[in-house]
Structures are given as C-alpha cells and as structure tokens.
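During the reporting period the student researcher (J.K.) took over the structure-prediction task from the postdoctoral fellow and processed the backlog of single-chain submissions. One of the processed entries is reproduced below for the supervisory committee.
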Amino acid sequence: MHLRRIKVLAVVVPAVGLFGYEFLRHFVIQPALGERDPHFTEHVVSSVVLLLAVVAFSFAIFRLLERLHDQLVALNEAAIAVTADLSVDRVLERVAELARTVAGASYASVRVEREPARTVASGSSPPGAQTLALPIVVKGERLGELVLGGPRGGTFRESDRRALETFATQAGIALENAHLFEQVQELVATRERVRIGMDLHDGVVQELYALGLRVEDAAELAPAEPERAAVVMREVHGVLRGVIGEIRGFIYDLRDGDRSVELRPALEQLVDESPSGGPAVVLETVDDVRLPAATAANVLYIVREALANSIRHADASHVAIRAAADGGYLAVSVEDDGRGFDPGVAPRGLGLRDMRERAGWSRGRLSLRSAPGEGTTVRVRVPLGGPNEAVR
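J.K. obtained the following structure tokens:
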C-alpha cells in the first residue's frame, strides 16, 4: 500500500473511532445508565483533543519512517553506484558525494592511506559544525577514513552512524575492487607489451626481411632491366610505408608508460598516411598536449581504428579529427559525414569492443554517436595524467 494512503488511514481511522465512540457514549451508553446531563460539549472537546494527539503522534512516527526509508533508499542506491566504477579515483569521488546524501551532511571527505595516498572532498562544512569520522576497513585492514560534517538538523543521529558504518564497509569493498582492477590492468598491459614484441618479431621483422630480398632483386635487375627494377622499387616503397606505420604504433605501445609524448605529431602522421582516394581527412582544433606513452598509444589506436572504419565502411566524404584538453582531461573525437548506422545493431568488424577496452586501460571512457544517414562520431576522454596521474 502506498505510504500516502497509510497516512490518510492513520488519521481517518482514529478519527472515526473516537467520534463514533463519543457518539455512542453520548446517545446510547449515558442514557442507558440514567445520566440526565450527558455533557455533549465535553465529549466533543475530549474527542478533538484525543484526535489531535493521535494525529501528532502518527505524523511524528511517519516522519521518522520516511527519514529512515529515504536513508535506506539512498544507502542502497549509493552501494550500487559506488560499486559500479573500477577506477580508484572515480570511486573516491562517488563515495564522498554519496556519503553526503546518505547522512544529509553538507561536507564529506574520504582518504585512502594505501600508496599512493589520496584524499577527495565534497561540499563544505560550516564553522563549528559537528563532524563524524568513520574508518574504512576491509578484511581487518584499514584502507582509509570517511569524515562527514555539517549534518542536517545540526547533529548526527545514531541511525546516521549505523547507515554510514554500512556505507563505509561497502565503500571499502569498492575501493579494494578498484585497486585489484588496477593491478589486473597493469598485468594486462605487461602481457600486451609482450604480445606486441612477438608481433614485431613475427610480423614486421619478417616483412623487412622480405623487402630486403626484393631490393636485392631490384639491384640485380637494374643494369639489364631498369624499368622493371623501378617497378619493384615502387612496390617496395609502398609496402615500406605500411611497415613504418606499424612500427610507429608498436613504438608507442612499447615505450615506458610514465614517459610523456606529444600527441599532435602522431595525429598529423595519421592524417598524412590516409589514402588519397578516400574521404578528405582533416585535423581540427588540436591542442598541444603531452600524454604518457601508454595512454597516447591507446588514444592513437582508437583514432586509427575509428578513422579506418570511416574510410572502409562509412562511405564518407569528410572526416574530422578533433582533440582538446579541458579540466585535466583530453577529449579526442573522430567525426564523419557517412551513412551512419544504428548503434543498437552495430555491424560486426567495427572494433568497438577493442576501442572501449583501450579507453578503459587509460582510465577513460569511449562514447559513440551515430544514426542512419547522419554520420558517426567516436569520442574518447582520458585523464591527461594517465593511469599514474603524473605527466613527466
């Protein structure tokens, strides 16, 4: 039953009962007992007083229940929200924001003591306001501390403390999961570098070896058949350009992830390498930014894959690559004017899963906007500091 109906019944039922009882007492019971002066006014006044007392009590109870209900709903939503992210920094932000909601506080901060130590705060606390500090503990290990200030009503209640203790436990689990996820991603990155090294050996090195043999053939043909030798060299040149592009991508992947690189030259090279017979590819509004090499490699992979999709599948006439830094983040987009598609039934082979994974490795997010006949826009947003929040 809806809470509003329960409130109505909580008032109506006592009112009907009280007035009914006084009516019965005035017109039936007292005459039957032989009382000559039933005091009608007294019965009405007593009924009203009792009714007001019942209504006041009911509203106090319902107000408390509503507060507890809202707190439980907020606690449940907070638990779901805070465990939905796998980035330690994002989890810290959400813990600080949602703790305020759960407790009705004006200020909240969460501190993680595990290296690297980090603190995130939300809101502001009035001077002299009451504060409440709760440890964040997981499996007997103290991960940090949750501090709240400026409670609604001026003081924290025992129910606030119990709710926040539950939330602190859930926050600790979310932080632990995020930390484990970061460790897994580091292992994945290491395995990826090993894979790229194997690809270099089995792919690029073999291609270069084959090109060397073709060059030797051209040298032998040059004295007697110079035209044929020239054809072979042109073929070698075409293949060599493709190999250079592969090597460039491998270099970005294999560099130390903490070393910073410039993004603009790499994007300019991607534009220069676009096929002449395809859509016009332009680089627009690109800021001069530096990224950790590992993050740059992931961004370039996403841009290269999105550009390849626009060239191969979109039937586009114009493709624009844009990059801009804002508030500690870099946003890069690849937008074409092609035929587009329905993202809900995206065709296979677009590499969207790989692009999303690359964005996730860099603690970023990838979004896709497309519709039939309206082109496609792929956008990735990554922190400028990369996974380690430091660009050197």
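The committee noted the following: Residues 3-79 form one domain.
J.K. will present the remaining backlog at the next meeting.
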